[in-house]
Amino acid sequence: MNKLTERFHRLKENGEKAFVAYIMGGDGGMERLKEDIFSLQASGADVIEVGVPFSDPVADGPVIQDAGLRALEAGTTLSTILETLRVIKAQVRVPLILMTYINPVLQYGVDKFALDSENAGVSGCIFPDLPLEEEGLVTGALSKTDISVIRLASLTSPEERLKRLAEDSEGFIYAVTVKGVTGERAELNAAELEAKISKLKTYTNTPVLAGFGISTPSLAKKVLPFCDGVIVGSKIVNAFHQGKREEVDELIKGIKGLALTVK
Ligand SMILES: O=P(O)(O)OC[C@@H](O)[C@@H](O)c1c[nH]c2ccccc12
């Protein structure tokens, strides 16, 4: 079984919610990528989402965009990220997913991408600018591997679309909590999100996780009662950039501790 699916089974058995940590691959260089992964693993992240920097990141807010620019300036490419992941593979127990716009994948070559990702220990991919209708571009190659394609569900998706994306979903479904780009928010509309997530859950048993704008235990607490976990990006990217590793450790422990008490 795929590492990601295995992890979700285990969380379910233990009555736990998932904490997914997003980082920008190559922000601060490749040694930092390794350190970031090991420190997130030690802090108790359940899944690590590694972003591949891209020049035209339409879904990214300012914090992730800046991190992407820093990573590109440091010479990061899809290839250097996959190579780094391959080197540390044996020491990584946490399932890794890649978050990449589709263009770098097409340039790299889809078949080579699938093969090299598998060899790098990647167990899932998110392609934020690849609509359901275009998934065929990658699924032919990825279905020969054990890698899941993780779909994004937006608050604006009509029910028919939610149904289609839920039905044969893999890994988990990424429910986008806000209309707009990634980044910290002071508030979020939990009622609207709950309605969408409960709809999704009528069509699938695939875990549904909420991401975008979640940066504190109190925001996580609003959504965890009706979803299977949260994804935190900008907060972590910022803290790591500023060298504040303890902040990330506290955040993960804070949210994981809370998640144990919500059922
Ligand atoms: O940064 P936030 O608001 O905490 O949200 C997570 C998000 O950054 C990460 O999952 C992500 C980064 N870039 C993306 C593009 C699309 C979807 C998701 C992402």
Automatic annotation (TrEMBL):
The active site is at 49 (proton acceptor), 60 (proton acceptor). One of its GO terms (cellular component) is cytosol. Tetramer of two alpha and two beta chains. The keyword Transcription regulation does not apply. Belongs to the TrpA family. Pathway: Amino-acid biosynthesis; L-tryptophan biosynthesis; L-tryptophan from chorismate: step 5/5. It comes from Peribacillus deserti. The alpha subunit is responsible for the aldol cleavage of indoleglycerol phosphate to indole and glyceraldehyde 3-phosphate. NCBIfam families: trpA. It is an enzyme of class 4 (lyase). The keyword Lyase applies. InterPro entries: Aldolase_TIM, RibuloseP-bd_barrel, Trp_synthase_alpha_AS, Trp_synthase_suA. GO terms for molecular function: tryptophan synthase activity. Its EC number is 4.2.1.20. This is Tryptophan synthase alpha chain. It catalyses: (1S,2R)-1-C-(indol-3-yl)glycerol 3-phosphate + L-serine = D-glyceraldehyde 3-phosphate + L-tryptophan + H2O. Keywords: Amino-acid biosynthesis, Aromatic amino acid biosynthesis, Lyase, Tryptophan biosynthesis.
